[in-house]
Amino acid sequence: MILLVRGDREYLREPGETLETDLGVLEIPTDAEPGDVLETHLGEEFRVRELRGPDLFNHLERTGAPMLPRDVGLVIGETGLAAGDRVLDAGTGTGVLASHLGRLGADVVTYERKPEFAEVARENMALAGVDERVEVRTGDLTDDLEDLSGFDVLTLDTEDAPDAVARADELLVPGGFLAVYSPFVEATREVVEAARESLSDVRAVETIQRELDVDSRGTRPSTGPVGHSGYLVFARNV
């Protein structure tokens, strides 16, 4: 897959396909490569761009509210996740987090309860080019806890996260990391309390990002809404 970009327009297509827009018809060459400039039959230009991690947030098929890129970045930075790590994930949803981790070179097993969501997630993993690294399982992680162990990182975005957190010390290797996302303060407190039973370095953070307005008069924080997205709990196996 490649991206065809013109201004704020983006179209995801395969080389060899046809793009039809109000700017004309574009026959995409089979050998189209990132950096190429292609013209429609009306002479309008589109630039070819490679599909990269941040683009997945906009182009994966959504089955719910996906984790924002800034939260994905925090998970990666706080856990030190790297190529070759084994990751256990639950609450796949759209698969933004799982696909990012797969693109880093991690091997991910991710659980999604809803069969229709799991099928979409598998298609998204193929689009992201990580279907060989990310295994999407249909089911509830808490049903399989007895059979799982040896993971470097455990990531959760589910209502029953405290149940899995209570077994995190058995799921993780020594020194492995836990990262739990929640949109609610009450759920975050439950996760923290469960993590304190068997893990170390437990801490909870709110993820907020505020944009800057930059113009000829000067630069200052935007007067728009503060960019709150949710809460993340991090902890480490002893």
UniProtKB/TrEMBL annotation:
<keyword id="KW-0808">Transferase</keyword>
<dbReference type="GO" id="GO:0008168">
    <property type="term" value="F:methyltransferase activity"/>
</dbReference>
<dbReference type="Pfam" id="PF13847">
    <property type="entry name" value="Methyltransf_31"/>
</dbReference>
<feature type="domain" description="Methyltransferase">
    <location>
        <begin position="83"/>
        <end position="184"/>
    </location>
</feature>
<keyword id="KW-0489">Methyltransferase</keyword>
<dbReference type="GO" id="GO:0032259">
    <property type="term" value="P:methylation"/>
</dbReference>
<dbReference type="InterPro" id="IPR025714">
    <property type="entry name" value="Methyltranfer_dom"/>
</dbReference>
<protein>
    <submittedName>
        <fullName>Methyltransferase domain-containing protein</fullName>
    </submittedName>
</protein>
<dbReference type="InterPro" id="IPR029063">
    <property type="entry name" value="SAM-dependent_MTases_sf"/>
</dbReference>
<dbReference type="InterPro" id="IPR014816">
    <property type="entry name" value="tRNA_MeTrfase_Gcd14"/>
</dbReference>
